[in-house]
Design a protein that fits this description.
single chain; Transferase(Phosphotransferase), domain 1; 2 domains
C-alpha cells in the first residue's frame, strides 16, 4: 500500500480513494471507502485502455466472471460500472499480502503450509470451474494470503470453457512463467491448464522460484514446452504432487477434485512430454499488446478433462470473507506463429462405464435465465420442486406439469435449501452473505433474514414438527423457524460441515463433517441432540470428507456418502458400520434412502446416480444422462421420481428419472 499520487483520482463513483494497493496491465487498484464507511478495493481501467472497446469487453468479462464465482474463493464484487468513462470494479477488502509478496518478504512456505495452500487453491479453482470458467492467469501475484485462507483474484483473462473465444487464434493471454504448454501454444486452455499453473504456484511457494524460470520470455517458452521443470529444491513430500500438476500432457494431470480430496493418491507421470510439441524453430514470439479479436472457435478445442467434481461444501477457511487486490499481475500478450498449423482437438473423454440396469432421464426442468444449480428440495406432498445455485435465485417448478411456477430473486449464492414440513416455506442460505433466509413459497416474500456470522450455511434441515431449523457450517446451529432466533450451537472447530439431517422423530441431528485440513473431529458423522445440539456420539470410518448424510425412514439407520468413494450405512443405536458400499472411482456427493428404506441412493461425480439394496449393498440400478457430476438428489414421497442437480459447468438443468 502506498499514498495516492498527485494525478490519481480522489473519488470513483460513490467511493472515496485513500491509497494505492497495486497496479497491472489493465488498471490501477486503490483502497477506497464506501458511503457506509466500509473499506473496499477499487480497480480502475488505465486511461489508454478506456477508449478501446476490446478492453472494455474484457473488463466486463472480468466483472461477470468475478460475480459468478462469488465470495467463497475470490474478492467479492460489490459494485462495478464497465460503461463509465474510466470503467471501474469494486470488491470487498480484507488486508493480506499476495503470495508473491509473502514469499519475498518472509521466505518460502514449509511443506505443511504448501499442502494447505494446495488444498485451498484447488478448492477455489473447483469453484471457478464449476461456474464454467477457466482462470488462465493463476500466479503468485493473483493469490492473496488472507489471515483466514487464500483467495484467487484477477479475472481479467478468465473465459468461459464453453463460450466463443474473444481472443484471436494463437494469441496468448496470461503470464508465461505460469502457463501450461497448451496455453503457450495459443490453444484454448481448459481446467487442466489451471492445474498446471497451480503446480507452478506451489513450486514458487515452496522454493521462492518458478519451475520454469529463465532470463527471457523465449527461454521460458522453450522450458515450458520442451524441458522438465526444475523441482530440485522441493522437499521430497511435495515433489510428487507438484510434478503431477506439471505434466506436459493435460490429460495426465490430476483434477482439482483429486488435489482436494485424494492428494495422497497422486502419482507423477514419467518424465518427458506425452504430446507432440512443435520444435523450437516452429514457434516465434513477438512482443505485442494484448490482442483481442472476434473469432469463433469450436468449444471442442478445450482440453478434455471429463467432469471436474466440485467440493465447494468443504469449508475454505473464511468462506464468507473476501480478500483485497493487493497486487495485480501484468498479463503478457504475445502472438505465436506456429509452423505446423492447427493441432487437432483431442478426443472427448469416453463416457464412464456403467453396470447393467441403466435408467435414462424421464425429463428435465429448466427455466429462462437459470444457469447454475447446486441445491434441490421437494415439498413433502411431492408437488413442487425448488432448486438454486450461484445465479442468486431460487426457482420453483410444478412437478406434474414441469412448468416453472416462480423465481425468487436476491437470494445470494444458494448454498442450502429445504422446504418446511407443510410445504409453505423455503429455507435457504447465501454462502456469499452469511445469512439464513426463510421465504413464503407461494409468494416469494421473505419472512426471516438472519445473519449467521462470517460463514454461509452449507446445509439446512427442518425438524419434523417444523418448529426449528438446523444449519451447518462452520459448526451446527439451531434456529427458531418462526423468527430465526438462535436456540443452540455446537462447535466443530472450523473443520468444515457439508450436510445435515434430522431423524424422523426429531430427536437426533446427523452432521456430515468434512475434516478440513485433517482438523478434529475429522471426517466423521456427528450425532447431536435434536433439541439442544448436545453431542450424543459420532460415526467413525470414512477416510475422506463426508459429503452427505440421511436417516432411514424408521430412524434406525444412517447413510453417509464420502469423497473416499463409498457410501456407509450405520446402526444408530450401536454407532457401528452395518455396510460399506464402494462406488468404484467415483466420489459420492450425496446420499438418500428411498421412502420405504429398501434402497440407498448416491449422487456420483461420474455423472450418475446409483441405487443399492440397503440390506445387501448390491447395485440395483444406475441413473444416467445428467450432463455432469451430480451433487445433490431428492426423491418424491412415493419414491418413483429422483431429481438431481449439480456439475462442473453451468447448464441450469434439474434432471428427472422415473425409478
Amino acid at each position: 500500500m502506498e499514498p495516492l499520487h498527485p494525478g490519481d483520482p480522489r473519488r470513483i463513483g460513490p467511493y472515496r480513494l485513500e491509497a494505492r494497493l497495486g497496479t497491472g496491465g489493465m488498471g490501477q487498484v486503490f483502497l477506497g471507502i464506501s458511503p457506509g464507511a466500509r473499506r473496499v478495493a477499487v480497480k480502475v481501467i488505465h486511461a489508454e485502455h478506456a477508449e478501446d472497446d476490446r478492453f472494455r469487453r474484457r473488463f466486463a468479462r472480468e466483472v461477470e466472471a468475478a460475480r459468478r464465482v462469488g465470495g467463497f474463493h475470490t474478492a467479492q464484487v460489490v459494485d462495478a460500472d464497465p460503461e463509465a468513462v474510466s470503467p471501474w470494479l469494486v470488491t470487498a477488502f480484507i488486508p493480506g499480502p499476495s503470495l508473491q509478496q509473502s514469499v519475498v518478504e518472509r521466505g518460502p512456505l514449509d511443506s505443511e503450509a504448501v499442502r494447505a495452500l494446495s488444498a485451498g487453491l484447488a478448492e477455489g479453482l473447483a469453484a471457478i470451474h464449476a461456474c464454467g470458467l477457466v482462470h488462465r492467469d493463476l500466479k503468485p501475484g493473483n493469490v492473496i494470503m488472507a489471515a483466514d485462507g487464500p483467495r484467487i483474484i484477477d479475472f481479467g483473462v478468465a473465459r468461459a470453457t464453453d463460450a466463443t473465444v474473444l481472443t484471436s487464434h494463437n494469441v496468448v493471454v496470461g503470464t508465461y512463467a505460469y502457463m501450461s504448454p497448451e496455453q503457450v501454444l495459443g490453444e484454448a486452455p481448459g481446467p487442466p491448464g489451471d492445474v498446471f499453473s497451480l503446480g507452478c504456484v506451489l513450486a514458487y511457494a515452496a522454493t521462492g522460484h518458478g519451475p520454469f524460470d529463465a532470463t527471457s520470455i523465449p527461454a521460458i517458452v522453450h522450458r515450458v514446452l520442451h524441458e522438465e521443470p526444475d523441482l530440485s529444491r522441493l522437499p521430497d513430500d511435495l515433489r510428487n504432487l507438484i510434478a503431477a500438476c506439471l505434466a506436459k500432457d493435460p490429460v495426465r494431470r490430476p483434477t482439482v477434485d483429486t488435489l482436494t480430496t485424494r492428494p495422497q493418491r497422486i502419482v507423477a507421470p514419467a518424465p518427458g512430454p506425452a504430446r507432440m510439441l512443435p520444435p523450437d524453430d516452429a514457434v516465434d514470439t513477438r512482443a505485442n499488446a494484448t490482442l483481442v479479436a472476434n473469432r469463433r472457435q469450436d468449444a471442442s478445442g478445450v482440453a478434455p478433462t471429463g467432469p471436474v467434481p466440485v467440493g465447494r461444501r468443504a469449508l475454505l477457511i473464511g468462506a464468507g470473507a473476501v480478500a483485497a487486490v493487493a497486487a495485480v499481475g501484468v498479463p503478457a500478450g504475445f502472438l505465436l506463429i506456429r509452423g505446423d498449423g492447427e493441432q487437432k482437438a483431442a478426443a472427448p473423454p469416453a463416457a464412464p462405464p456403467h453396470p447393467n440396469g441403466l435408467i435414462s432421464p424421464s425429463g428435465s426442468l429448466t427455466a429462462e435465465g437459470v444457469k447454475n444449480l447446486s441445491e434441490v428440495a421437494i415439498t413433502p406432498d411431492g408437488r413442487t420442486l425448488a432448486a438454486g445455485g450461484s445465479d442468486a435465485t431460487i426457482t420453483l417448478w410444478d412437478l406434474t406439469t414441469r412448468r416453472a411456477l416462480r423465481t425468487i430473486d436476491k437470494t445470494g449464492w444458494v448454498s442450502a435449501l429445504a422446504f418446511s414440513p407443510n410445504g409453505r416455506f423455503v429455507a435457504s442460505s447465501a454462502s456469499n452473505a452469511g445469512v439464513l433466509l426463510i421465504w413464503d413459497a407461494a409468494t416469494g416474500r421473505i419472512n426471516v433474514n438472519v445473519r449467521t456470522g462470517q460463514f454461509g450455511l452449507n446445509s439446512v434441515a427442518y425438524s419434523p414438527d417444523g418448529r426449528t431449523i438446523v444449519g451447518v457450517n462452520p459448526g451446527a446451529r439451531l434456529f427458531d423457524a418462526a423468527g430465526g432466533r438462535t436456540l443452540a450451537t455446537f462447535d466443530l472447530g472450523h473443520s468444515g460441515v457439508n450436510a445435515v439431517s434430522y431423524s424422523p422423530n426429531g430427536k437426533i441431528v446427523a452432521v456430515a463433517v468434512d475434516g478440513f485440513y485433517s482438523k478434529p473431529p475429522g471426517s466423521t458423522v456427528q450425532l447431536l441432540d435434536g433439541r439442544t445440539l448436545r453431542k450424543l456420539g459420532q460415526l467413525v470410518g470414512h477416510t475422506n470428507s463426508v459429503t452427505g448424510v440421511a436417516f432411514s425412514p424408521d430412524g434406525k439407520r444412517v447413510a453417509s456418502s464420502g469423497a473416499d468413494q463409498t457410501v456407509r450405512i450405520w446402526d444408530v443405536a450401536t454407532r457401528r458400520t452395518v455396510r460399506v458400499i464402494k462406488a468404484g472411482e467415483a466420489s459420492v456427493k450425496d446420499a438418500k434412502f428411498s421412502p420405504d428404506g429398501s434402497t440407498v441412493l448416491g449422487a456420483c461425480s461420474d455423472r450418475t446416480v446409483r441405487m443399492w439394496n440397503a440390506a445387501t449393498g448390491a447395485l440395483t440400478a444406475t441413473l444416467v444422462g445428467h450432463s455432469q457430476a451430480v451433487e445433490r438428489i431428492v426423491l418424491t414421497p412415493d419414491g418413483r421420481t429422483v431429481a438431481g442437480v449439480g456439475g462442473a459447468k453451468a447448464d441450469g438443468t434439474v434432471t428427472l428419472w422415473k425409478v
